[in-house]
Amino acid sequence: MSSSTEVNTFANDELTVGKWFGNVWTAIRTVIKGMMITFKYVYGVKPVTIEYPEVREELPKNSRSRLFNDVENCISCYQCATACPVDCIYITAVKRDKDAPALKTKSGTPIKLDLLQYTIDTALCCYCGLCTTVCPTECLTHTTDYEFAQYTLDEMKYDYLAEDVKAWRERIVK
Amino acid sequence: MENSNNVEKLHTDLMTVNMGPQHPATHGVLRVEIKTDSEIVAEATPYLGYLHRCMEKHCEHLDYRGVIPFVDRMDYLAAMNMELGYSMAVEKMLGTEVPERAEYIRVIVSELQRIASHLMFFGTYAIDLGAFTPFLYAFQDREEILRLFEELSGARLLYNYFWIGGVWNDINDDQLRRIAQFCDKMEENVKKYHDLVGMNKIFRDRTANVGVISEEMAYQYGASGPVLRGSGIDWDLRKKRPYSIYEKFDFNTVVGKGEMGTLGDCWDRYYVRVFEIFESIKILRQALEGIEEGPVMGKVPKIIKVPEGEIYLRTECPRGELGYHLVSDGGKTPYRLKVKSSCFTHTSMLGELGKGQMIADFVATIGSIDIVLGEVDR
After folding, report:
1. Facing residues of B40 across strands?
2. Does the beta-carbon distance from B42 to A5 stay under 8 Å?
3. Shortest distance, CA B188 to any CA of chain A (angstroms)
């Protein structure tokens, strides 16, 4: 079959016998040089791989991993939901009864709204950290917990008012 | 005689082959439709859009701070450089002054990111051409940079670190010391890597005289960054149109010389990228000397409202020139944010570059222009 397309070639010098042997010599020389560098890694360099389930890496202190909201200190100000660029924070809050006992956060801010729902869809979250920086009571924080794989997408929605999610407070190192 | 006539009468046709969208050599989800004449590429057409996320449209509904995480996701291998351009554009429109220390941190961090990005190129390009070991070496060094970024910003890949008015977190002395150590180590390592890969005869034969972008073609397509410099054109925005505090630093522009073959071939582009690491180290060392104590965040209102107007701001990213055209109508959100990415222009060259190449050479050509599909499609 004759080829109709021409091959673009930019090499302009012709191959002579001397050049052919020269090429062979350069190939041997450079490959040996490369192999010398590679062999240094056999004993000279320590392995850097972390053998994961046995050895768990500890993330740096301000690493942005799973979000945790301490709902007892939350004043339902909606600032996190406004700042979120992907709108993955769902908050429902109603006005607190006047007769109910007055509540205060750890820093002393009065809580005027009753939080009914505080859900973050972690599957949507882009871990940008904008919600934690606007939080006035600093109750919403990124933790260094990175093991939170789930079987279904629905399980990635964390309701921070649920008892089992509240228990993370003890589990998480902040 | 009769036999040869029969051969000529045989019906020959071009075969259409799809390279990608899932192909290890296309670095992401790029589809190149190739019409092949046996082993030769007769026609190559790149098709885009597999990673399109409507980023520009999204930005019209986000406040100015919320855009930064989206900007990160364009070129995910050089997210810091993407943030730098955007935050500078907004600051210029707001008239905010960035503190001196923040500017230094920005330069340090974006040069580190440039090194990380070029290391990534070095590793993946070697993989494209069939060498696996250099990839691991490159990742070992890149890991150190990512670890440092994780401590600085809290994330490994998509940082959200440059904020409008400064940077989010201050850098401490220990980290600065580690960067200085990294510079020393990196200088030796890159020399070693260049001996291992760049000078190797097999690598030279695969890349020299392949995928030649002539000076004229580079101008015509509007190439920038290492692709332009690889064609022998001395153009670096950091040098020619200094932004941020780049005018304070003394460094050279690496330009391809056609050492191993024709000027503007794949080897030249490889050479420019690898030797730019040394220039970045030079800048880093000067920045580490010049950095002084001070605040890292300028005065920015809590709700950012950019005055009416428009701006076009461009910066030099590891892959080329990145331009932001930001239009504001005085509201809380950008009216329009148009991004001019270098990867897009470089992808458009593939059609002309591929013509008449062997398929294996075409793989080398795609690798050498180093495109990130996140930036092509946005």
Report:
1. B37, B358
2. yes
3. 12
